[in-house]
């Protein structure tokens, strides 16, 4: 990427960095080259761009949401699926964005004297402190800077970099105690106590990627008549609202445009003509995530029995955050679950798939998208640590799947995809149990071998599952397609089991007596562990040639012949 020039001098010598015309958004072009573009250029060239490229995946997610807020507001829509279809067919669909950006140019000036982009002019602490840029640059972990190329501090940022991190800090800033700002009524003893992370930080972020950035933006451009999502005529993005003061505006979100640009922090950059050298950062507008599923479409949702009991209301939905230890394919149920699949009667669904995927499902059902085409679902999120005061891990994953999985009137494809992932999960658990039994047979520590075997199992099945899932787009019979998957899992996990057994050594073959959790003693060696393993795997995956399981059920209770007589 080329380094953007320093700020230009505006009226009366004031510094200016116009984000509508100055390059600041990293992009990957369709030819594989990288570049930095202005807001105007991103929309003008969207069909020639592959994707946004951020310093972190979370920055990319935050920037995509900002672009969607611009598009929704500039197009004032789409109103319905037919309106969306016209945009999809129009190669120049984002032409109105140029006039829109020109109209609101002042609010996109990063260094504006009274309304700087996503900042609060004059923001200050009682002691007029200016803090290190580490506070907004998320790839410099607080207290643990040695895994960053910027170690140990960020002394200076270009205006382009600073603009990206300003967008990111509103979305993903950590919680914790923050320095209080002058005129913020929440200040106690010079501090504001924890009010939670940035809005996107509490989400298990999900969006759909197309072949180009134009397709990506359109696929995530939800129509105003979408069932299950609430739209308001008063919905506005941050730059069309009155500039924020130091405290909280104490208001609720009005819709997509508001949420995509939610001002969860108060920020003020300190700079000179060559770049940004410091920042003032405090809390902005807090926003509770409870039951926001009718406004926030870019996350899955889960029912919370604990919150329902606490609040005395039902249902209560909370965002389903991503588990860094669990790949996207293993969590496919949360992506394809239909809100109508409630488990019977009028009971509310235990989880809701992202509104973005509900929208794509509608496009498939209404035949705006081909039934057997593939879409790539992108998952982005953050795992926080120590009371959400630090970022522990960033989640970034993709899952390519046929859009038929989202079809609202034909659920059998989605059901088979979920069942296949669950079968893989159970088969890997059986492999972990084999590793546990082999460790018991020699009297060694059990948890380490079990965890290593499960990791190996999931790694071995991940690519085959992703390939099998993509091929489902061409499958005429999803049930037969799942049977092919079962054969794949049986073969893969059996081979992994062979390796564990071969590596167990002579001591495991000789075996030993061990005492289970019920204080019953048993004899266990490799031969018996192998028999249990094959039987359980064959039973779990419905192998018509399943061998005798050796009598071992799914608990610690052993085969009868293995019990040691007192």
TrEMBL record:
InterPro entries: CRISPR-assoc_prot_Cse1 (IPR013381)
Pfam families: CRISPR_Cse1
Region (Disordered): 543-566
Name of the featured protein: Type I-E CRISPR-associated protein Cse1/CasA
């Amino acid at each position: 990427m080329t380094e953007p020039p320093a700020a230009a001098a505006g009226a009366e010598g004031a510094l200016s960095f116009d984000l509508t015309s100055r390059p600041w958004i990293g992009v990957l072009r369709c030819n594989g080259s990288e570049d930095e573009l202005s807001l105007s250029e991103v929309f003008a060239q969207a069909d020639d761009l592959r994707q946004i490229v951020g310093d972190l995946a979370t920055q990319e997610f935050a920037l995509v949401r900002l672009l969607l807020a611009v598009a929704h507001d500039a197009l004032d829509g789409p109103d319905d699926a037919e309106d969306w279809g016209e945009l999809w067919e129009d190669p120049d669909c984002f032409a109105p964005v140029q006039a829109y950006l020109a109209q609101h140019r002042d609010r996109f000036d990063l260094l504006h004297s009274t309304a700087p982009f996503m900042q609060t002019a004059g923001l200050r602490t009682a002691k007029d402190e200016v803090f290190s840029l580490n506070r907004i640059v998320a790839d410099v972990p607080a207290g643990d800077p040695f895994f960053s190329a910027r170690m140990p501090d960020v002394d200076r940022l270009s205006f382009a970099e600073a603009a990206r991190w300003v967008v990111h800090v509103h979305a993903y800033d950590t919680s914790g105690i923050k320095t209080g700002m002058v005129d913020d009524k929440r200040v106690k003893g010079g501090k504001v106590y924890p009010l939670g992370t940035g809005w996107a930080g509490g989400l298990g972020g999900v969006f759909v990627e197309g072949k180009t950035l134009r397709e990506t933006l359109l696929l995530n451009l939800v129509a105003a008549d979408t069932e299950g999502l609430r739209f308001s005529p008063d919905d506005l993005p941050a730059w069309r609202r009155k500039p924020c003061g130091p405290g909280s505006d104490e208001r609720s979100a009005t819709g997509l445009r508001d949420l995509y640009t939610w001002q969860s922090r108060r920020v003020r950059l300190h700079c000179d003509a060559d770049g940004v050298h410091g920042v003032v950062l405090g809390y902005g507008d807090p926003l509770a995530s409870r039951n926001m599923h009718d406004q926030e479409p870019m996350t899955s949702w889960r029912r919370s029995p604990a919150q329902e009991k606490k609040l005395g209301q039902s249902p209560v939905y909370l965002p389903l955050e991503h588990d860094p230890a669990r790949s996207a394919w293993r969590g496919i149920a949360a992506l394809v679950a239909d809100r109508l699949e409630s488990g019977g009667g009028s009971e509310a669904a235990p989880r809701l798939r992202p509104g973005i995927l509900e929208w794509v499902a509608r496009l498939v059902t209404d035949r705006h998208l081909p039934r057997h085409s593939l879409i790539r679902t992108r998952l982005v999120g953050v795992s926080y640590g120590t009371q959400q005061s630090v970022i522990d891990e960033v989640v970034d994953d993709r899952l390519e799947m046929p859009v038929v999985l989202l079809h609202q009137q034909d659920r059998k494809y989605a059901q088979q995809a979920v069942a296949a992932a669950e079968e893989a999960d159970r088969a890997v658990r059986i492999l972990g149990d084999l590793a546990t039994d082999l460790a018991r047979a020699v009297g060694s520590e059990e948890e380490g071998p079990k965890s290593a075997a499960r990791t190996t199992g999931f790694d071995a099945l991940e690519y085959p599952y992703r390939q099998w899932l993509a091929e489902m787009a061409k499958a005429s019979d999803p049930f037969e397609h799942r049977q092919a998957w079962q054969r794949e899992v049986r073969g893969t996990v059996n081979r992994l089991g062979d390796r564990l057994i071969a590596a167990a050594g002579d001591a495991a073959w000789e075996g030993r007596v061990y005492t289970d959790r019920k204080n019953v003693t048993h004899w266990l060696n490799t031969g018996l562990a192998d028999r249990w393993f094959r039987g359980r795997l064959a039973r779990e995956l419905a192998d018509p040639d399943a061998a005798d399981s050796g009598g071992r059920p799914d608990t610690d209770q052993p085969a009868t012949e293995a019990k040691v007589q007192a």
